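Section 5: illustrative case.
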C-alpha cells in the first residue's frame, strides 16, 4: 500500500480511496490541488496497484491496513473519507468496523452489488476476464461502444473511453492476479444493513444515470444517508466536472 500526503497540516484529514483497477493519479489528480488548499489529504494506492510489486488480497485487508495507519499517525480519527466507486467498499468497511472515528464518509457512485463466493468466482472468471482484457488493451469492442452510446449518448461515451485509453499505462505493472482479486473482493464484500455509527455522517453521491434501483440499496445499508442526486453516470462528476465535485464535497463537510 502506498500512501501520499498533500496539503495543509491541520486536523481536517481527508482520506481518498481509488476505484476499480485505478490509482490515485487517475481518480483524484484533477481535484487534489483544490482539496490540498484546505485539507490534509492522504491518498492510498492499494496493494498490487502501488508499483511496489506485491499483490492485491482483499478489501478487508486494505481496511485493516488503513485502520492501522489512521490509528498510528492520526490518533484514530478522520475528518472525512471519500471512496470512489468500489473504493466505497473500503469506506463502508471502515465505517461499520468502528475502529477509527470518521466524521464524514462520502461514497461516490457505489453499486453495492454482491453475491456468494461460488457466483463471484464464476463471474470473475467470465466477466472479470473480459473486463481485464479490455483494461489492459485500452480497446473497447464495437458492440460495447454501441451499447454505451445508446445508454448514455455519444459525448459521454467518448469521455469514458478517453479514461479507458489511459488504463494500459496505469496497469502496466499490475498483475492479472491483483485485478482478478480486486474484482472478486468487490463481489464478496458484504456490508451490513442499516449501518448507523454515532458521530459519522454518511453522504452518497448518487449518479442517477446508473439506475434508480441503487437508491434502495443505499437506504438498506445505511440509516438515513445523505443521498446527493446528480444526473451523471458512474463517477462522471469526479472525472469530468472536478470543480463541481469539489464544491459538492465541501458542501458535505460542514
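Designed sequence:
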Amino acid at each position: 500500500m502506498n500512501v501520499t500526503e498533500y496539503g495543509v497540516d491541520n486536523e481536517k484529514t481527508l482520506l481518498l480511496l481509488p476505484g476499480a483497477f485505478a490509482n490515485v493519479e487517475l481518480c483524484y489528480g484533477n481535484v487534489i490541488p483544490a482539496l490540498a488548499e484546505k485539507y490534509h489529504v492522504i491518498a492510498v494506492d492499494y496493494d498490487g496497484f502501488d508499483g511496489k510489486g506485491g499483490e492485491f488480497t482483499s478489501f478487508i485487508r486494505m481496511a485493516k491496513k488503513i485502520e492501522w495507519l489512521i490509528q498510528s499517525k492520526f490518533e484514530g480519527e478522520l475528518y472525512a473519507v471519500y471512496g470512489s466507486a468500489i473504493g466505497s467498499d473500503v469506506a463502508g468497511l471502515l465505517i461499520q468496523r468502528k475502529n477509527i472515528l470518521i466524521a464524514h464518509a462520502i461514497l461516490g457512485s457505489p453499486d453495492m452489488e454482491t453475491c456468494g463466493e461460488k457466483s463471484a468466482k464464476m463471474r470473475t472468471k467470465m466477466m472479470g476476464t473480459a473486463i481485464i482484457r479490455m483494461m489492459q488493451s485500452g480497446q473497447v469492442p464495437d458492440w460495447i461502444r454501441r451499447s454505451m452510446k445508446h445508454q448514455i449518448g455519444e459525448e459521454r461515451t467518448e469521455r469514458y473511453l478517453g479514461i479507458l485509453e489511459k488504463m494500459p499505462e496505469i496497469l502496466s505493472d499490475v498483475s492479472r492476479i491483483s485485478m482478478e482479486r480486486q474484482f472478486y473482493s468487490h463481489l464478496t464484500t458484504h456490508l451490513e444493513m442499516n449501518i448507523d455509527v454515532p458521530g459519522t455522517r454518511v453522504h452518497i453521491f448518487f449518479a442517477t444515470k446508473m439506475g434508480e434501483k441503487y437508491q434502495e440499496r443505499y437506504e438498506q445499508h445505511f440509516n438515513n444517508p445523505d443521498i446527493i442526486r446528480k444526473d451523471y453516470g458512474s463517477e462522471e462528476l469526479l472525472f469530468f466536472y472536478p470543480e463541481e465535485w469539489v464544491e459538492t464535497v465541501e458542501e458535505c463537510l460542514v
